Input
Amino acid sequence: MKIKGINKQKLYDFNNLTKSLSFNIYDICYAKSYEHRQEYIRYIDEQYNAQRLTEILTNVAHMIGANVLNVAKQDYDPQGASVTVLIAEGPVDGGQSGQDQESAAGGTIVPAKDSVVAHLDKSHITVHTYPEIHPDKGVSTFRADIDVSTCGEISPLKALNYLIQSFESDIIIMDYRVRGFTRDLHGKKCFIDHKINSIQNYIPAKTRNQYYMIDVNMYQENIFHTKMILREFDLDNYLFDSEKDEIKPGERKKIKKKIKREMSEIFYGRNIVNV
Output
């Protein structure tokens, strides 16, 4: 499906609106034993290590029409990874190294060291991963936090569907905000330069149909919030290193209840109290 393009408005000078798209992406699974849970963490760390995340974020930069200035990445012990990518709307000067460049948005790169990231104020893409396991109930949850912040004409919304598809997404919580102002040809302030009434406008119908979705939008503040949770539930998709046919029906029912509770608590942002 072709995603609707973003209409451009003629402006007086440089477009300095800041457009920020933030994701929380969750993948839930059940790992039967302690060994299985540790294996799940190792699997996630390998599947979404710093190198793989760098490839995803670099693709995002290209999709939104940005140029990569610098990349800082780090894998963590015992688990997790993070990547920061500094981007610019204009072409990169080939005569400068990534460590010496300054972005048009005002970000400055510090000298490269083992765990140093870029110091910047506007155009950047970051991702942080958080694999974790429940201490006694076998539920394991992988969370990825992604932030795409741009200034100028480039928009993070162009990479929306790619980011959703790049992770095993049971639950997605997204925030999109436009900040600052620019001016039109007559000097009038523009606080947003494209039409939007929901983040869902930029998600293809095929993807929307797979999820139950809730919007909480503040149009007067140019703040848009969307939550998504998968509609269909197949226990086999949530079992790590085992299949539901190997589990007794009574135990299957308990596991399904644990997983659905975990998903509901994350989606609604509150703990469910047993009655």
Remarks:
- The beta strands are 18-30, 67-75, 81-88, 124-133, 139-151, 171-179, 182-183, 189-190, 211-218, 223-230.
- The radius of gyration is 21 Å.
- The chain has one domain: 18-268.
